[in-house]
């Protein structure tokens, strides 16, 4: 078993992160496996070296050890480019110049029929920039690129997909269809204008590169897993087992957010809490 914790260094780790990291660590240790770390720093406007340093410090304080040097997504650009190049060469990507506002306007237009659909990647793209035929030109630089979901599904020639989930109390197979992908997910962004990659592309490439066998993360990413499975199929990568755990909430039942400094591990530390207190507080 190889598990990982993959925080974004965009703020302090809070109790929700502590739970995720402790669970992934404990599951690997209990199975005699490995626990790895990955710094998801593709958001250059928000990622800061001081937050990365704080992550190592908080995790060490919690008593966690990792079995290889952490990888950082900003060091992985060549791997992301190769994958984009391969999808582009197969005619599965297209450049998109739409702004968020364009997408909202197009998706809400009366001729679209029905209400706009929100999927795990936000508003399902109405297809404004989608070409009718693959584009023959070389992979463009500095353009946002979308996956042509219809073309991707035709390429995979399969109606049904699934992944194994162990986070809901037992081992379950989670099936989903090509139709679900078309209507609830659509043409997702795989490369951003300012970064040759996106969360979905990097996460599947990095999990495969780190040999992750069990992805342990919050329930909020459960639906996004369908995107990850489709990308694994397109890029010929293995699909790990997924364990989506419950989310840690505050006393009002609200999910903790990055800016929830009050529940930052650093704050608990400063107030004299012990790692055992943190474990207890998250129900471990
Ligand atoms: N970097 C993501 C986060 O901090 C986690 C992604 C994942 O575990 O797949 O929310």
Provide a brief overview of the structure.
With 284 residues, this protein is an alpha/beta fold.
Describe what this molecule looks like in 3D.
It is a single chain. The chain is of the alpha/beta class. It has two domains: 1-74 and 249-284, HUPs (Rossmann fold, 3-Layer(aba) Sandwich), CATH 3.40.50.620; 76-210 and 219-240, 3-Layer(aba) Sandwich (Rossmann fold), CATH 3.40.50.620. Helix content is 36%, strand content 17%. Strands 1-2-3 form a three-stranded parallel β-sheet, covered by helices on one side. Helix 8 links the parallel strand 11 (214-218) and strand 12. Helix 7 (199-209) crosses helix 8 (224-234). The radius of gyration is 20 Å and the shape is globular. The two termini are 20 Å apart. The relative contact order is 0.19. The mean pLDDT is 94. Glutamic acid is lined by residues 6-8, 40, 203, 217, 221.
């Amino acid at each position: 078993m190889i598990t990982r914790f993959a925080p974004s260094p965009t703020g302090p780790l809070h109790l929700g992160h502590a739970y995720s990291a402790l669970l992934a660590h404990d599951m690997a240790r209990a199975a005699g496996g490995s626990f790895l770390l990955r710094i998801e720093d593709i958001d250059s406007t928000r990622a800061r070296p001081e937050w990365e340093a704080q992550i190592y410090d908080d995790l060490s304080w919690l008593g966690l050890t990792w079995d290889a040097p952490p990888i950082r997504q900003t060091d992985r650009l060549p791997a992301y480019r190769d994958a984009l190049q391969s999808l582009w060469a197969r005619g599965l990507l297209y450049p998109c110049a739409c702004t968020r506002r364009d997408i909202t306007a197009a998706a809400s237009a009366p001729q679209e029929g029905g209400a706009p659909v929100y999927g795990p990647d936000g508003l399902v793209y109405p297809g404004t920039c989608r070409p009718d035929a693959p584009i023959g030109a070389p992979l463009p630089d500095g353009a946002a690129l979308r996956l042509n979901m219809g073309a991707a599904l035709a390429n995979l020639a399969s109606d049904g997909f699934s992944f194994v989930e162990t986070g809901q109390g037992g081992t379950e197979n989670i099936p989903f269809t090509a139709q679900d992908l078309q209507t609830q997910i659509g043409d997702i962004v795989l490369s951003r204008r300012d970064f040759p990659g996106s969360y979905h592309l990097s996460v599947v490439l990095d999990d495969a590169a780190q040999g992750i066998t069990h992805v342990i993360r919050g329930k909020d990413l459960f639906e996004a897993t369908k995107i990850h499975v489709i990308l694994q199929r397109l890029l010929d990568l293995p699909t790990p087992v997924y364990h989506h755990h419950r989310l840690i909430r505050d006393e009002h039942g609200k999910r903790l957010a990055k800016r929830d400094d009050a529940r930052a591990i650093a704050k608990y530390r400063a107030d004299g809490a012990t790692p055992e207190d943190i474990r207890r507080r998250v129900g471990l």
